[in-house]
């Protein structure tokens, strides 16, 4: 049974940092891109960042470029999201996800991802 478990969320002041982790179990995902999405109250889920299966290619939504960094450790089946210079508008539930197709460029749409974690809350106070 595939399971993705996010951790590292919490409450932080504006300008602060958090590091999210997503540990996958049930199978290995070294051949698949992985991504982070977020959903704020009353808003649709949006793509935040993604990383290719090799880790050599990344993709970010414009609002987090220069502040967030995605990385992965295939040996540990884990993906990370380092979030710096956090803003109140970054407040959301953050989800990690695994691409449904191996060995391709990072997809940016949620329907292109097959497995999802349960989410971790990130709250940024002003």
> How would you describe the shape?
globular
Strands, count: 11
The secondary-structure class comes to mainly beta
Order of helices and strands: EEEEEEEEEEE
What is the typical, i.e. mean, pLDDT? 96
Q: What's the gist of this structure?
A:
This protein is mainly beta and 126 residues long. It has strands at residues 3-7, 10-13, 18-25, 32-39, 46-51, 58-60, 68-73, 78-83, 92-102, 113-116, 120-125.
Describe the overall structure:
The radius of gyration is 13 Å and the shape is globular. Strand 5 and strand 6 form a beta hairpin. It is built from no helices and eleven strands. Strands 2, 4, 5, 6, 9, 10 and 11 form a seven-stranded mixed beta sheet that branches. A four-stranded antiparallel beta sheet has the order 1-3-8-7, with no helix packed on it. It has 126 residues and is mostly beta strands.
Protein topology:
Blueprint: E1 3-7, E2 10-13, E3 18-25, E4 32-39, E5 46-51, E6 58-60, E7 68-73, E8 78-83, E9 92-102, E10 113-116, E11 120-125
Parallel strand pairs: 2-11
Antiparallel strand pairs: 1-3, 3-8, 4-5, 4-9, 5-6, 7-8, 9-10, 9-11
What characteristics describe this protein?
about 130 residues, globular, about 0% helix, mainly beta, four-stranded antiparallel beta sheet
């Amino acid at each position: 049974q595939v399971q993705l478990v996010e951790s590292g969320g919490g409450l932080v002041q504006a300008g602060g940092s958090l590091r999210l982790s997503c540990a996958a179990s049930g199978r290995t995902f070294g051949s698949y891109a992985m991504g982070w999405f977020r959903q704020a109250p009353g808003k649709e889920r949006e793509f935040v960042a993604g990383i290719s299966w090799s880790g050599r290619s990344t993709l970010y939504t414009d609002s987090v470029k220069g502040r967030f960094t995605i990385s992965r450790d295939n040996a540990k089946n884990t993906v990370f999201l380092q979030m710096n210079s956090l803003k109140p508008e970054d407040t959301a539930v953050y989800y990690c996800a695994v691409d449904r197709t191996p060995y391709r460029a990072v997809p940016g749409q949620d329907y292109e991802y097959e497995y999802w974690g349960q989410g971790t809350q990130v709250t940024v106070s002003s």
